[in-house]
Write a structure and sequence with these properties.
single chain, alpha/beta, binds pyridoxal-5'-phosphate, 223 residues, 8-stranded parallel β-sheet
């Protein structure tokens, strides 16, 4: 397996509107640098300590995307450098990002995580919870967060029809919310969906950001 050629292969599959987030969690700096030398600049991580350490030791033109569940009390550690937070799943978290970003004079781009999987998952807004959040309007007063779109994860299954339906439901919901609250906001345009086993379907259903780890870097070794 070769990181450089896999990245090239994936890039050739992506339509122009889709960007690749190389999910490097649990993988060492040397592997990230191999992807970097292949031209990759967006990397996704889901642990605060790990992404902070990597940010400090790797080239500064890397865009770090935080893709996992983010605890409110850890927001302050990543807000100074993170480029996009994919998994905003509560109003409280959004408020904390706004507060911490204000302290370091940044505007942090965020995606609202939406629960689309049939399986029980803990994280993400339901469609109704998300509508309520946006209807409430307080988010609109936050000067240090910038809502750029939505993120979702499909059920982990081999049932392609199910996966496609779930991605389709996220795209449909995105279109509804875009039309209602962000019609004049060109930056609200991201739909982060698709991982190693389902990204071709996600692209067909309108993804703009695919988060691919295993296919590029191989299996993760957890310790
Ligand atoms: C780990 C992870 C990925 C990448 O998954 P792969 O199957 O390795 O491509 C994508 N998104 C999120 C939220 C993840 O935690």
């Amino acid at each position: 397996m070769n990181i450089e050629s896999t990245i090239g292969e994936i890039r050739n599959e992506l339509p122009e509107r889709v960007r690749l987030v190389a999910v490097s969690k649990f993988h060492p700096n040397e592997m990230i640098m191999e992807a970097y030398r292949a031209g990759q600049r967006i990397f996704g991580e889901n642990h605060v300590q790990e992404v902070t350490r990597k940010y400090e030791t790797l080239p500064k033109d890397i865009e770090w995307h935080f893709i996992g569940h983010l605890q409110t009390n850890k927001v302050k550690y990543i807000v100074p450098f993170v480029s996009l937070i994919h998994g905003v799943d509560t109003f409280k978290l959004l408020k904390e990002i706004d507060k911490q970003a204000a302290k370091c004079d940044r505007i942090v781009a965020c995606l609202l995580q939406i629960r689309i999987a049939k399986e029980e998952t803990k994280f993400g807004f339901s469609f109704d919870e998300c509508r309520e959040l946006l209807e409430h309007g307080e988010w609109n007063l936050m000067k240090h967060v910038d809502l750029r779109g939505m993120m979702g994860m499909a059920t982990y299954t081999d049932d392609k029809v199910e996966i496609r339906n779930e991605f389709h439901s996220l795209k449909t919901f995105f279109d509804e919310i875009k039309g209602t609250y962000f019609r004049d906001d060109d930056r609200f345009k991201e739909i982060s969906m698709g991982m190693t086993h389902d990204y071709p379907l996600a692209i067909q259903e309108g993804s703009t950001l695919v988060r691919i780890g295993t296919k590029i870097f191989g299996e993760r070794i957890y310790h």
